[in-house]
């Protein structure tokens, strides 16, 4: 998937290819980087980039993302037009439901072909003695279920893939 | 508590932001009830929400609220307070306001109005100091008249010279003049700037001290003539003539010089009849001569570093003195232990010449750990208003020595997360890491000498882009480390209570 950000007037293209346990991320035409998501929350991401850990604090507001990494501050603007047609940023993007942390899949309530409502609970993942209900971000149809109950899941691995209706 | 004195029971804080919050904190420890005042735009500000009572005093422009003397006195009477604490800025050094409080039978937590008037008038104050043989920077004894007068004095003290506003502060109306050719224009420009900033165009001339350090002494004076100093603060790191990093002890002083300057500070306070907490500012030249600059007649922004190395709560002392207590602290009881550094966090854009840039704070995460103190007036979800000084908070650290304190503040700054508005945090980190700063080579021209072409480090831009993209592409629950620590307003509470923050997680 491709994203475009504007920083200090320059546009950057970021391409993400999901791999088995990580993501391959390419910025513009540079060498691809192996990025593993250690943990991911609304306001913080822990990333393992080519073996080095980086904790990123972030917040968003409309078309902007604000980030702080090791005392450095960045403001990234989403390139207009591309994101607008995709609707609410961060929720519907990709139409996939992932676990924010490594854990185990406790329950899966849907199977391929099921129609789901927005907000419907699709799966429960347990991590660190906590259960997390993962809900559908959209009204749609289940395209693919990648895990079965009892299986281990890594952070940000797609568990359920959806198709908008 | 001494015999016959009556401790203040309830106080109105005629200020806002971090200093109002700071004052309220000590009030709670002293069981003093607090009344916060706020302009309409400050309804959701932190100070408004932590006081015992809050009263709206008008529209956002300061003249219609925080500077409205009669309304403040009226509010003080209505809420039944014994005292008004002015904080810093606004009416803190306004002798007319102190006088109005005195006539209304309300204690002004600050110097008496007479001393305040004297130290507030820089030219008058200079005259008094000269009479008492306090070292002064060579220059005019009074406001300069025609340009010939300026030219003669400049020749006498030697170039470069400095043009300063008589009622000035914060560098406004100030001009450095290198030679006679520039003088006439600089005087005119200084006058224009002084007029627009202070409503008075009076300027004077003095010798410009090159490579100076700004060293100030904290003093406490009770109403019985007892005066002590609580050592120095070095505030040489300044931008636009405003301090941004302060430390104590100063690397430039030895015990002998420290004692001499401290005693001079006490003498200055005694000659002016000053009472309560105050600060005597000096310039120290490269040959270790010091010159009196002015008395700051208020609690200073940088007061916490003094508190951390001496253990004295200066705001508490202000209340005790204002209540009519005798100083119980003796000069010989005050020691400096370890080293403290403060960095000021403003809503400003370092890259655009430190222009203030207000906005909404989307995320706040304050650093924690041994020897770290944050004096703050902000919280996650709060919108920084455009009407006031852009100071947000102060990060203050303590370490057993300067080296430790520098490392500690660097780490603490790196863990100070403010998202949504620009702050000088990246710039401050680069200052405290700078070899000249580490060596203690700190002069008031530090920033123009060492940081003039500063640009933020872009090494981590790729990491930011990666994080931005991954964040976009994933649906994430609201959990975890990014949790705001101060949640006050209802609207914000909904999205960030620690329990709600857990989202759909439940314990198993």
Secondary-structure-derived class of chain A: mainly beta
Oligomer: heterodimer
How can the largest sheet of chain B be summarized?
8 strands, antiparallel
Number of structural domains of chain B: 4
Q: What's the level 1 CATH class of the largest domain in chain B?
A: Alpha Beta
Q: Which residues of chain B sit in consecutive blocks of at least 5 with pLDDT less than 50?
A: 478-508
Q: Determine the mean pLDDT of chain A.
A: 85
Poorly predicted runs of chain A are 82-93
CATH fold-level label of the largest domain in chain B:
D-amino Acid Aminotransferase, Chain A, domain 1
Fraction of helical residues of chain B: 25-40%
The radius of gyration over CA of chain A amounts to 16 Å
The count of DSSP E runs of length 2 or more, i.e. the number of strands of chain A, is 16
Going by helix content, strand content and strand pairing, the class of chain B is alpha+beta
Global shape of chain A: globular
| CATH architecture annotation of the largest domain in chain B | 2-Layer Sandwich
Shape of chain B: globular
Strand order of the largest sheet of chain A: 1-2-3-4-5-6-7-8
